[in-house]
Write a structure and sequence with these properties.
The chain is α+β, with helices and mostly antiparallel strands and about 170 residues long. The chain is built from five helices and seven strands. The protein has a seven-stranded mixed β-sheet with strand order 1-2-3-4-5-7-6, with helices on both faces. About 25% of the residues are buried. It comes from Perkinsus chesapeaki. This is N-acetyltransferase domain-containing protein.
Length: about 170
Amino acid sequence: MKAHFNPYFFILFALQESEHIKYRNYEENDKFYKQSVLELYCQKAGDIPCYVAVDVDENPNAVVGFIATTIPYEIPEWEEADVRKKMPGDKKRNGVFGNIDYLEVVTDYRTKGIGSKLLEHSIHRGETTKKFLAMTVTVLPEDVRAIGLYNRYGFVEVFSDESYYYLARYY
């Protein structure tokens, strides 16, 4: 008997999978497998709260991924000089920088688009900030998947060394 591939089954499965993931701002009762990391980045967030992905089937506070972004980001002078070198247009124009401080998705939830949705949220924050120049992020060289994700969303390498890659997305 010949196997039959039904693409509608996979589309339906993907839709069901995404229905139990909800996206929202961090709440004080949220739980993450690295609770101290969640609290470190999200309880100090101030004006721009962490944005989380929650598996509501597991628990309304079961965080399966989150992103912490700082806007405005007080970019160190030496980093700003490197970021501006690759910036299109007027490299001396005044404006605001942002930084992605942390992005993580629980291993079992990866490849489901959760990291993309979280990143899109931070990119949108930059797009809606007046005089926004660039969003920056630091990535470990061995984190090939993260580098690929950032590249798909327009981040380019500003500089790198054996310890990390420094990427920026220009606006």
